[in-house]
Amino acid sequence: MDSVSLSEVTVMRKTHLGFMHSFRQPFSGVTISPKFCHSKGSRAISSSVSSTKSQYVYGESLAATADSDYKMNGLTLKNRISSVKERLLLDAFDDEYGGVVVDHGKLPSSPTVFTSMLQSSLSDWRRKGKKGVWLKLPVEQSELEGFEYHHAEKGYVMLTYWIPEEEPCMLPANASHQVGVGGFVLNQFKEVLVVQEKYCTSSNTGLWKLPTGFINESEEIFSGAVREVKEETGVDTDFLEVIAFRHAHNVAFEKSDLFFICMLKPLSDKIIIDNLEIKAAKWMPLVEFVEQPMIKGDKMFKRVIEICEARLKHRYCGLSPHRLVSAFDGRPSSLYYNVVDDDDDPSHSNCRAEFY
Ligand SMILES: NC(=O)c1ccc[n+]([C@@H]2O[C@H](COP(=O)([O-])OP(=O)(O)OC[C@H]3O[C@@H](n4cnc5c(N)ncnc54)[C@H](O)[C@@H]3O)[C@@H](O)[C@H]2O)c1
């Protein structure tokens, strides 16, 4: 992913950012402490940028005394802020996970003001019990001599520069997708394993849904689905098939989303929920699950359930993973396909597998 996830931003007087020495203010006075947030799943960022516009709009009625002028939020202000720095906070929005997203369009141009506002803002967010802070550093506000941001990981920011002026830039773009998985787990009583999420949009409050999550870096889809179901519900499962996948765009900070819906066979039935993410989990009769207005009225989930039901009746067949090494790149990998009929060995057909 190409955004920096900051669990903590420490403001210091001197610059310790290595290459970021070349950043124009306001960032050259800021050190990002390496106290990184452990991110669950492959996504270092989340789709939570769909934030609710809210409170942290400050900076008005400044009784500043003058050293030099600077611009902020369209207002001409003074650069001496000692008398007001406690009151000056960065513009930010709440996200749906109890965090804040700083409005990067309204960052002050003065380094002193930025440093002070960041300090005050962090104190304010801490006091209010906020969790994750998202702070985007626009490339326009840096002096990188023509370099562009390519992507960022926890320990670095990768920059690129294309030298030949007469040739188009051929450097490959950053990764464009996040990969999610959902588990459809059905028991012998025709009950499906469902959860209620702790953090969700108001329209989804009370919805019983399939366990979903993101796969980790270098994790297989089949093991990621089993892990997510285990983490959220405590139920052990065996992977059976990818039943369908959805491709959606502009989901997380402009990145696309691949969502693999997987059929899993339950190996246990005792539910132990993950209190951090999940409000409740249970085995719910499939008929009741399907009757929920949000499922009934949602084209995707309605179709997913129809496909799963067709699969239960052996009228449909999903894709199962087959491990192989391709001579093309020499890497072990998983090829997902279905074996509908294998005359030599009918037991090979993944479409004959039962669910419980
Ligand atoms: N949740 C659904 O109802 C739903 C519906 C359709 C598709 N999907 C797919 O499921 C996959 C996973 O999506 P999801 O909705 O389970 O993921 P999500 O956005 O709920 O994130 C998973 C967990 O990560 C944590 N998290 C995410 N962003 C955070 C933030 N900004 N701050 C703090 N914590 C944060 C939360 O604990 C959250 O429960 C995706 O591919 C998505 O397209 C989900």
List keywords for this structure.
single chain, alpha+beta, Nucleoside Triphosphate Pyrophosphohydrolase, four-stranded mixed beta sheet, three-stranded mixed beta sheet, 17 strands, 15% helix, binds nicotinamide-adenine-dinucleotide, NUDIX_hydrolase_CS, hydrolase, EC 3.6.1.22, magnesium, Nudix_hydrolase6-like
Write up what this structure looks like:
Its cofactor is Mg(2+). It comes from Brassica napus (Rape). The protein has 356 residues and is an alpha+beta fold. The protein folds into 2 domains: 151 residues, no CATH class; 176 residues, Nucleoside Triphosphate Pyrophosphohydrolase. The chain is 15% helix and 29% strand. The chain contains 5 helices and 17 strands. The strands form 7 sheets. The protein has a 4-stranded mixed β-sheet, with helices on both faces. A 3-stranded mixed β-sheet has the order 5-6-7, with no helix packed on it. A two-stranded antiparallel sheet has the order 1-2. The N terminus is likely disordered. The site of nicotinamide-adenine-dinucleotide (NAD) has 20 residues, from β10, β12 and β14.
Describe the sheet with the most strands.
Answer: 4 strands, mixed
User: What is Rg?
Assistant: 25 Å
Strand content: 25-35%
- Please tally the β strands and state the result: 17
Average pLDDT figure: 78
**What ligands are attached or bound here?**
nicotinamide-adenine-dinucleotide
**Which structural category fits the helices and strands?**
alpha+beta
Number of folding domains? 2
